[in-house]
Amino acid sequence: MVVIDSFDSLSAITKPITNDAIWSVVTITGSLTLQIDGKSLIMTPSTLMVLAPGHLISDFYVSDDFSGFAINSTLNNLEAFLPVMSRVLLCYKVFWGNPVIQIDKDELEDQLLYHKLLKKKTSEKNTLAYSELVVDNICRAIIFETLNLYIKRLDTAEKSTKSTRSEQLFYHFIMMVENRFKKTRVLNDYADAMCISPKHLSALVKEVSGRTAGSWIDSYVIAEAKRLLSSTKMSILEISEELNFANQSFFGKYFKHITGLSPSQFRNNL
C-alpha cells in the first residue's frame, strides 16, 4: 500500500495504461480530469474516487491549484487487511460504474484524519512490537470507511437487491483463487470445481469485474512471487516450487511475461 501526496511524478507515466491496482483518490482543492475507458471523469473539490483494476486510463490532467492525496494498493494486499475479501467485492460493481462521488465536509474531514494518521505511522522509523498491527488496522478502518461512503449512496432499491447469479459466481471464483492459486493456475480447474464450463466462467468474470479470469489468477500468483522474492531468502528454485511451477525456467518465463523482468532482475532491483 502506497500513500501519495504529490501527483507531479504521475506525469511521467506512459499513457495509455491499464490500471492494475485499486486507487482511492481524494480531491481537496482544484481538479483532476481523467480519460477512463474513453470517458471523461472530473474530480472537483471534496470528491472521492475509487478506481478498480481493469480500467484503461488514456490521459489525465491535474490543475495548478490541485491538492489532494491517493492511496494505492493491489487487490492481493487488500486481502491481507480484510477478514473477508468479499466485503470489497460487494461494492466492486459500484466502483466500476460510478468511481467518483461527492463527499460532504464531515466525510472529507474523516478522510483527511485517516490519511494523516496513516502517513504518520508508515513514516515512523522506530519499529515497536505492535507497529505493524497498528498500520494494518488503520488500513482496515480506511477501507471500511470508504466502503460505507459508497454504500450510503446506493438507493434503497439497489441496497435491497440480491446479487445476481453472475456476481455470486464471481465472488465464489475469487475466494477459490485466494485459496488455490498456489496449487493451480489453470482456469479449467476452477470451472470444474464450480461445475460450470470454462467459457461460461470466463464470460461472467469479465462481465462482472471488467477483467479476465486469467488476469485475476495471475495477479495473485505474481503478487505472492514478488512478496517471496522481496521479503524472504528463498531461492528462485524454491519459490518456483512453492508456487507449483513445473521448473524454475517455466516460472522465470511466466514472471517475465507479466512483469517485464526476470525474477532475479526483480530481486536485484529492490
Descriptive labels:
270 residues; alpha+beta; five-stranded antiparallel sheet; four-stranded antiparallel sheet; 13 helices; 9 strands; 53% helix
What does this structure look like?
- The chain is of the alpha+beta class.
- Helices cover 53% and strands 17% of the residues.
- It contains 13 helices and 9 strands.
- It has a 5-stranded antiparallel β-sheet with strand order 1-8-3-6-9.
- About 2% of the residues have low confidence.
Stretches with pLDDT under 50, minimum 5 residues: 156-161
- Tell the overall outline: globular
The succession of helices and strands, N to C, reads: EEEEEEEEHHHEHHHHHHHHHH
Distance between the termini: 16 Å
Helix segment tally: 13
The value of Rg in angstroms is 20 Å
Beta-strand segment tally: 9
Instruction: Summarize the biggest pleated sheet.
Output: 5 strands, antiparallel
Query: pLDDT average, as an integer?
Result: 83
Strand order of the largest sheet: 1-8-3-6-9
- Give the percentage of residues in beta strands: 15-25%
Global structural class? alpha+beta
Which bin fits the share of residues in helices? Answer: 40-55%
